[in-house]
Amino acid sequence: VDPRTVEMARALSRNACVPSILVVAIAELDQIQMCGDASARSKLAANQHRAQGAFIGNGADDVILLDLHEKLTGQRVLEAVHRIEILARRLSQEIDTIQQQASKKVEEVKELASRKLQVAWKNQMWSLPGAVL
């Protein structure tokens, strides 16, 4: 993976105006030719997985991997956009759940602090008359 392309994905992810980042990676000719045996294919798959991880780890929303002779079709792009939408929906649901849990915890802590303050206030108020007299 070319570090400049990874840096470009990282820079785009910092820009709030960019809605989604879709990276299309094309395998090199020598990589396709060496796919004759199983070990070479597994090495190519590992390299492609590593490339996908590099882009997604640096801000890309999805990565499409193509062979040199393969065309990028509208269907592949729509599938990638659909995957991005599903991921965004899941993340939104997780964020909502975490926010609800956090607000519930805050309310519990406020209630506990309020009860402790009431008890301390009552104890202090009952001890004042005895100390004065």
Task: Describe this structure as you would to a colleague.
72% of the residues lie in helices and 8% in strands. By secondary structure, it is mostly helical. The protein is rod-shaped, with a radius of gyration of 28 Å. It starts with a helix and ends with a helix. It has helices at residues 3-14, 29-33, 38-57, 74-132; strands at 22-26, 62-66. The protein has a two-stranded parallel ribbon with strand order 1-2. The chain has 4 helices and 2 strands.
Short description:
The protein has a two-stranded parallel ribbon. It contains four helices and two strands, in the order αβααβα.
Furnish the topology, listing elements before pairings.
Layout: H1 3-14, E1 22-26, H2 29-33, H3 38-57, E2 62-66, H4 74-132
Parallel strand pairs: 1-2
State the main characteristics.
133 residues, mainly alpha, two-stranded parallel ribbon, 8% strand
